[in-house]
Amino acid sequence: MSEKPSFFSELKRRNVIRMVGLYLVGAWLVVQVAGTVLPMFGAPEWLPRTIVVLLAIGFVPAVIFSWVFELTPQGLKREDDVAPEQSITPHTGRRMDRTIIVVLVLALGYFAFDKFALRKNAETAVAGAILNKSIAVLPFENLSSDKENAYFTDGVQDEILTALSRIADLKVISRTSVMQYKSGAPRNLREIGQQLGVAHVIEGSVQRAANKIRVNAQLIDARNDAHLWAQTYDRDLADVFAIQSEIAKAIADQLQAKLSPNEKKAIEQPPTTDLAAFDLYSRAKSLLLTSGFSATAEPDERKAIELLDEAVKRDPSFFDAYRQLAWAHEQLYAVSGVDHTPARLALAEAAVQAATRLRPDAAETHLARAQYLYYGLRDYAGALAELQIARRALPNDPRLFELTGYILRRRGQQEEGLQNLQRAVELDPRNFFTLQQIALSYSNFRRYAETIAALDRVLAIVPDNVETRANRGLWYMCWKADTRPLRQTIDVILAQGPGAIVSAADIWFFCALAERDPAAAERALIALGDNPCWSNDNAILLSRSFGEGLLARMTKDEARARTAFEAARAQQEKIVQAQPDYGPALCVLGLIDAALGRKDLALEEGRRAIALMPVEKDVTNGSRVLQYFAITAAWAGDKELALQQLETGLRAPVAAQMLSYGALKLFPVWDPLRGDPRFEKIVASLAPENSKK
Question: What percentage of the chain has pLDDT greater than the value 90?
Fold first, then answer.
């Protein structure tokens, strides 16, 4: 008696498996072709979806049909009615195999055609539509005999760029990205166009002599180096602003960009009638443009304020100068935080009010208000509302997306904040300050691999930027608790000369303490000068004296430690007196008092700092004062509170570097908790996966 065939064998014999394969491959091919072809003939959107549904419904009947029926020389018959000698299933199976191969080849061919031809053409068409009206205004060359006119030349270029950026039909790259392509040096325009993602660039020169000015401008297609337009303007110096608007309108016309009446009016409006005030303004704006990523940020900002004060004194109707003045005060008040005083905030408010009186409805006024509401008052909802209004008339301004990103980040909407920063980079692709902020966003999630990748993008733009190179090693140390890459980077920087390390001296100091290397820490303190020994956790600024105390405490030199911490306290007390309601400053004072053994006072100051700066008010700084209170408690000798606060701090929305795996494992500030099983368990839980056993 023959053995009954298995179910799988029967599926094969009846060609059911072949039918399944043929149906699936054929259905995929039908769906793909329908999705491409039907829209070309104006088919309704529901038709492709209907085809997918019908094919899905038809799958089960097709399988059942192949099981129940068999093809014979006499036609289709039920399988049960076919005698063995009449069966031609093997022959049918071979025919189905050939059919499957043909359909599969067609499917693969279509897949390749779609991926490498249709999609590429579509992407090219879309890119072409975008790029054809995209432009970058490169720095103009100063041809004046007086080199001091370089700032004036920068101002002319900036006004042309600003005018073009008002046109919604154009994509215009921000000045921060184009300023890196210095004039006078050979330029590869094709390469620049690719780096900035634009089809066109403008080059030019300015020559100023007595009361005359010559401005030369030319429009070039960066894709093929074709010169599309050029013009030289020889005018009286007083006509410089008219020249700028004429150039902007000529460029818009060459690119066939639509120009609304409001855009035309904005382009034709001169910034000031006082050329000396414009010169002062141009100098100040150039200083502020780079202060965000400069080791001399504070003196640059203070110098800019002096220049702008003089500019508005000369021309009290200089609207743009007031906006820049407000921004400079806000930088000192909130961005660097070196002067977080009511007096500084009042100066920022006065500048915003002056701009508002001059042009209450201008988009730039709404942007200035948004910046003041965010940096000055932490009024997130109000700032976002102002940005929404400003966006209508400032289509190419990356600051709108950048500021939105910062606001959302401080509200705890980290992913949305990151997306806005990435949008800002599209308009300002070589702004390495924004790229550094993207890296910081990733670090807030403890996504250190992406943090380092973002810093690598910065280094691709500015490979010699010392601070970024050091920060890359620092974040690696925080991630892996491995100081070797950071120390190697520092050694390379030190080999460049004694002054090269200044902007990264605080990171060098951090590395030296993590490695328990007193000699290197002493050298880092000397390199610091009067700068803070730690400023990488936002508003938590630890003075050089504080760093000296840390080093002395690590080396068990208690006399030196006390002297240093007393000096740090005297300095910090003045800061707190000037800004009594600022949580981060009080948080630092609590740390110092804990180091001096003033337990009750330190804990009181730490708790009051948390109350002044709750996470609900400011996610970033609120997280910091919460997290640093764990160090205060540990230094005050309250181990239970320190561990409790450490666990709370690790749950905070934003991750501080001082609470990273590397810092907890290596940095001396956590020594009072070392050896406690609960602390060691917390540290082990933060180790990267490949480090855990």
Answer: 58
Q: Name residue 77's beta-bridge partners.
A: 70
What is the pLDDT of the chain when averaged over all its residues?
86
Residue 71 pairs in a beta bridge with 76
CA distances, 293 to each of 78, 98, 188 (Å): 80, 66, 26
CA 196 to chain CA mean position, Å: 16
Does 122 score more than 50 pLDDT? no
- For β-strands 134-137 and 171-172, DSSP reports them as parallel
Residue 228 main-chain phi, psi, to 5 deg: -95, -30
Answer whether 431's CB lies under 8 Å from 398's CB. yes
Please check the confidence at residue 339 and state whether its pLDDT lies above 90: no
Q: What is the pLDDT of residue 199?
A: 92
What's the predicted TM-score (pTM) here? 0.71
Q: How far from the centroid of its chain's Cα atoms is residue 217's Cα?
A: 32
| Rg of the chain taking only CA atoms, in angstroms | 33
Q: What are residue 653's phi and psi, to 5 degrees? A: -65, -30
Q: Tell me the C-alpha distance between 403 and 374, whole Å.
A: 8
First to last CA, the chain: 60
What element of type H or E holds 535?
A: strand 534-537
Rounded to an integer, the average pLDDT of 477-493 is 96
Which residue, among 461, 518, 454, 452, has the nearest Cα to 489 in the 3D structure?
Answer: 452
Confidence check: pLDDT of 127 > 60: no
